[in-house]
């Protein structure tokens, strides 16, 4: 998506949480005792809050999966001008009935293992939960190039009071994008997340993209999806101009 956004004239910034800027193969070699295990939800949120505080203006924030949850928390802090939550992990209290969600998330929580160790999905887990919409060759290539261990603490804290959102509060424009074949953050969960927002004067929209798995940014339709986001942002800008005239 970054390529399309840059060509449209947008400046793209992507801060990272140390040590996750290292190559995936290096991070995998440190599993299960990677320093990543020390990271919690507040560490991730603070990284982005501090980064945004240094910018000259509120940014447009696009968050995928857990990044969608971080976006929703930033929105609650009034830190962003607009946000796009792509297949967002939900805040505390947002639930939906889905077997694929349970099957995908339970191994990541590692409920009977130490939070001092990281979680690294097997290829079969990655294939089922994340990459089910990709050709096998892409599944294998992305797994080798991108898969890195994750903090169980981060994952578990998505179910804690740290992930609470006040859905009645006014907020900047927010677009939810759901993948029609997403198993780990299924469309029914994304819609439930969207429907919790209650402030009538705040812009909150939902759109489901058919055929998109959780790895939608790696599917052949990524340019189409990026263009959809750009059109939504352009409509927001036009609506803002119209309201001022």
Question: Please, could you describe this protein's structure?
Answer:
The chain is globular. The two termini are 33 Å apart. It has one domain (2-244): Rossmann fold. The protein has helices spanning 2-7, 24-30, 41-53, 66-76, 99-109, 123-129, 136-146, 152-157, 187-195, 222-244, and strands at 60-64, 82-86, 118-119, 150-151, 174-179, 204-209. The strands form two sheets. A four-stranded parallel β-sheet has the order 1-2-5-6, with helices on both faces. Strands 3-4 form a two-stranded antiparallel ribbon. The longest helix has 23 residues, at 222-244. It contains ten helices and six strands; from the N terminus they run αααβαβαβααβαβαβα. The model has no long low-confidence stretch (mean pLDDT 93). By secondary structure, it is α/β, with parallel strands linked by helices. Helix content is 42%, strand content 11%.
> What overall geometry do the principal axes of the alpha carbons give?
globular
Largest sheet: 4 strands, parallel
Query: Which strand order do you get reading across the main beta sheet?
Result: 1-2-5-6
Superfamily (CATH H level) name: Alpha/Beta hydrolase fold, catalytic domain
What's the tally of helices?
10
Task: Give the strand tally.
Answer: 6
By CATH reckoning, the class would read: Alpha Beta
Which spans have pLDDT < 50 for at least 5 consecutive residues?
none
Named CATH topology: Rossmann fold
- What is the ordering of alpha helices and beta strands? HHHEHEHEHHEHEHEH
Fraction of residues in β-strands: 5-15%
Tell me roughly what share of residues is in helical segments. 40-55%
The average pLDDT is 93
**Count of distinct structural domains:** 1
Class based on secondary structure composition and strand pairing:
alpha/beta
Distance linking N and C termini: 33 Å
Radius of gyration, in angstroms, nearest whole number: 18 Å
- Kindly report the oligomeric state of this protein: single chain
């Amino acid at each position: 998506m970054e390529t399309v956004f840059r060509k449209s004239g947008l400046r793209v910034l992507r801060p990272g949480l140390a040590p996750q800027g290292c190559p995936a193969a290096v991070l995998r070699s440190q599993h299960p005792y990677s320093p990543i295990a020390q990271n919690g939800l507040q560490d991730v949120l603070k990284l982005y809050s501090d980064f945004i505080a240094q910018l000259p203006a509120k940014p447009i924030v696009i968050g995928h999966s857990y990044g969608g949850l971080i976006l929703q928390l930033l929105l609650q802090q009034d830190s962003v001008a607009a946000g796009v939550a792509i297949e967002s992990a939900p805040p505390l209290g947002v639930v939906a009935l889905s077997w694929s969600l349970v099957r995908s998330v339970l191994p990541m929580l590692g409920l009977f293992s130490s939070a001092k160790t990281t979680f690294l999905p097997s290829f079969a887990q990655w294939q089922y939960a994340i990459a089910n919409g990709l050709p096998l060759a892409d599944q294998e290539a992305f797994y080798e190039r991108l898969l890195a261990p994750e903090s169980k603490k981060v994952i578990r804290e998505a179910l804690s009071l740290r992930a609470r959102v006040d859905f009645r509060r006014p907020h900047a424009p927010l677009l939810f994008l759901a993948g029609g074949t997403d198993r780990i953050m299924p469309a029914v969960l994304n819609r439930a997340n969207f429907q919790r927002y209650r402030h009538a004067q705040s812009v909150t929209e939902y759109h489901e993209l058919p055929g998109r798995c959780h790895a939608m940014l790696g599917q052949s339709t990524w340019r189409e999806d990026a263009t959809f986001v750009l059109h939504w942002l352009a409509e927001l800008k036009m609506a803002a101009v119209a309201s001022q005239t």
